[in-house]
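Example with several molecule types.
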Amino acid sequence: MLGDFFLHESRCIVLGLVDTSVINHLPLVDTPVRAGFPSPADDYLEAKLDLTEHLVKHPSATYYIKAMGDSMVDYGIFSGDLLIVDRSLTPQVDDVVIAAVDGELTCKCLGLINEQYHLLSGNALYPPIALAGKELHVWGVVIHTIHSLRGRGHS
Amino acid sequence: MIGLVDCNNFYASCERVFNPRLEGKPIGILSNNDGCVIARSNELKPLVPMGMPAFKILPAIRKQVTLLSSNYELYGDMSKRVFDTVRAHTSDVEPYSIDEAFIALDGFSDVTAHCQHIRAVVKRDTGIPVSIGIASTRTLAKVANHIAKKQTAYCGVCYLANESGLLTEALKQFPVSEVWGVGRCIAEKLHVLGIHTAWDLRQANTKQIRQQFSVVLERTVLELQGTSCIELDDMSTPKQNIMTSRSFGQLTESLFDLQEAIRVHASRGAEKLRHQHSVASAALVFLKTNRFREDVVQYNPSIVVPLAFPTDDSRLIIEAAQKGLRAIYKKGFLFMKAGVMLLDLRTKHTEAQFDLFETPNNVEQKQKSDRLMQTLDAINQKMGKHTLQLGGVRKQAPWQIKWELLSPRYTTRWDELLQVR
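Resulting structure tokens for the full complex:
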């Protein structure tokens, strides 16, 4: 339902306001729908799949770091794994991050306990690190971990 | 509008990114062979002068200071990251040194805010703090950058607009010897003429300057007056680095063409070195594709090749530059420009005076030894490790000391990645 047009202070013409008084129910299609189908006349060719391009979206802000120890095994990060870390992402609760706590770099999960930020481990043997009163700098967000299966240790 | 982006204490800052414990601490970076201090963090500046040989630092001071060998691979990679990050926010980036670049800032309504944004993104993505100076010419942008760096009130970004009181004041307080392109010698001659500040030089008669000095200085005066007329090709400042580069008449993707260009640039750079009695510690090689060609994929690689020891030898410099080119060249890209920068210059005769290991005899021996090393490595590679080994005496060889204080090459070697628990 459209009201009268009017000129907003930002110099945009407002055509109308959304009417939120009525809720419309629409059916949900929950199977993925592909728009169209691959055409032999596609503009570009892919010669091969580039793994780096696929995994790394911000090359100038992405760094490779080696994980040591077993503090994050519950997240699937094992000693010797290759972590792909992106500094350009804004860290959010639940992100696995590389963080500097009092100058020391560590790989942990950013979490909230009782509304206080903590660094959580992925291993019951390592207690959460409370950040109150400490200097925390998030160095980067860990976006992928690469675990090689051949030559893995047996716990 | 032209901006000059300059990294603060670049080498020390690179080390700090991967070792946060070094934040706020005095750090000194040493030249190859762990000779002299070539870079300092702000905290080191009051304690140790630039160029001081490491062995001359007093023990009391040495204890509180972290000394590291120059990790050129790391610095070169971080430099590339900084410039690539900046490139996403401006229409052109022209690297001028390993840690400085001129950028094009046309079309921004609030250029200061935009540069603050660039500063924040660079710090976030690379961990490197930078200062940005903005003005209508490169020479003035250099003045603005100097102010941005030294005066904390600017929060890292200083814009000197033409005809502004700020610009006038800044030039009146800027010593003429610090103006881009004015060395100590020229400054002394200018003092005789009563020209002491950048403002004085700006007011000078350009014809007179051209007659009494050179057309180069005349251009500096014009730039101080707001007329941009200095191109980046073939610029050099004796103190910091020598840069030789040229845009190609025609875009080329041929390695052969690039090798020829790099050979010429490296050779000319070495000539300039010898002309000013300097030696260089590393060579930076870069390539540039044409940013105006949207149909062409962009690729702007660069790499720093450390020189085994500070040198002005054409052969060694050309060899290093060619090695760098081979490492960054990729087929299928149309390049517009190639260049070679010679980094961390030092006066040649200082070498002989302070560095005990650098006497001419040893230089000869060192070169011979390098060839021997290469042969050795080749044989060992082919026939298996330890097929040939050095006799005991060699293990104390001075030029091997340089690896002692080297931090890991965190971003260029798989087996030297940062390790985190």
